[in-house]
Every structure is written in C-alpha cells, then in structure tokens.
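note to self: dont lose this again. the chain is below, predicted strucutre after it. 241 aa total, dont forget to put it in the shared folder this time
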Amino acid sequence: MGYRIFLAGAFGALGRRLVPQLLEAGHQVTATTRQAAKAEDLRALGADPAVIDVFDAGGLRAAVAAAKPEIVIHQLTDLPAGLDPGKMGEAIARNARVREEGTRNLVEAAKSAGARRLIAQSIAWAYAPGREPHAENDALDSGAEGGRGISVGGVIALERQVLEAPMTGIVLRYGHLYGPGTGAGTATDPAVHVDAAAYAALLALEQGARGAFNVAEPNSHVMTDKAGSELGWRADFRLAV
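---
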C-alpha cells in the first residue's frame, strides 16, 4: 500500500538515497528543496517538488497542507559538504537551529495537515558519558559544553518535539554516515552506510511504536538490537545502484 509522504530534506546525503527507495515501494512523495533550480531534479526522480525553507513557518504549513501527507519524514540538516572541519564551527549552530526551530515548524505543519506518523533523523553519539553500549533509554548528554553542548541541545529539542507530537513520532539515531554522497568511504563507530540509514526510514513508515531507535552497524558504543527486532532493519542493506 502506498502512502502520501512529505519528505523534508530530499537533497542531503541521506535524502538522496531515500527518495528512490520510497518511490520504488510505491509511495507518493512530495520532497523539499530550498533551491528552485533543483525542483526539476526532483521531478526527474518521480517526486513532487516543494521549494520551501523550513524557517518559513507559514510557507511550510501551506506546502505540507497541499501535499496532504499521511507521513512526514524529517531528514533536514545544515552541514558543509564532507563535514569540512574549517566550516563546522558555524555550521554547528545552524544545524542546531534546524533541529530546534525547523523541527518545531515541521511538527506544527504536520499536525495541521493531519499526518499520523512523523519520522525524524537524529544521531547516535549524543548519549551522556556512562557504561556502554548505550540503549535507547539512556540519558542524552544534556550537560555537554561548547560545540557539543550546542549540538546535543539541538538533538534534545528535536527528539522532545517529535516524541511529544500528537502522532506516532519515531526518532532514528543514526551512526556516522558513510557511502555515496557523504564524502566518506568508512566512518568511526558507531557507523552506518547511508543506504542502510535510508532503509531504516523506509521501514519506519509502517513498523515501530513511538520512540527512539539506534541505527548503526554492530559496535561497542550503542545497542542496535531494537532497530532489528522492531523495524526489521538490516545494517547490510545497499541500493542496487
């Protein structure tokens, strides 16, 4: 059965690998981009483009309402290509704003449109120091300082808003991404291939109760059993192309 899906963040490394999976599964996808020049690229993929900035609350609400989605997927980030170290300092604050203010706008738009499920991207390395591997119910590092404090603060704001939304909210805590479009052929643990990360979002359309899921290859830092048992996720999933 195909669903009407609103995908916020279609041109990030993960979004680009998710769009073809959604379309192949028979879903109707409205996908966002901030750049009008990329609208035709989305149409060529088979998605309906929505040119919108997540900080434009009114415009976002109108775009989501027009799409009439049953499910909203939040894959928005604001990070430099290849995670360029020279640009990460200022990017951390921008990305935290996406996670806090952008998520708030997206949740409100999803509520207004009557969406029944919301799936959002988070990270698997925001846990507070303590015994490892971390399970999903372990505390996040709310006491972090400096750049990590800004980043984790954004994560906490995103997760709270998604999990408290009046719909089924699912948070996918991804490991460090590697693979096509990420600029990395490998990643430090916890790691996850970008195709497998996108696959988790596809599975979460129908599987999983409200809550958080670690999505990473087997490692010593975070437990990954929940994603496998409740979502049916496999870390070895790869797109054919």
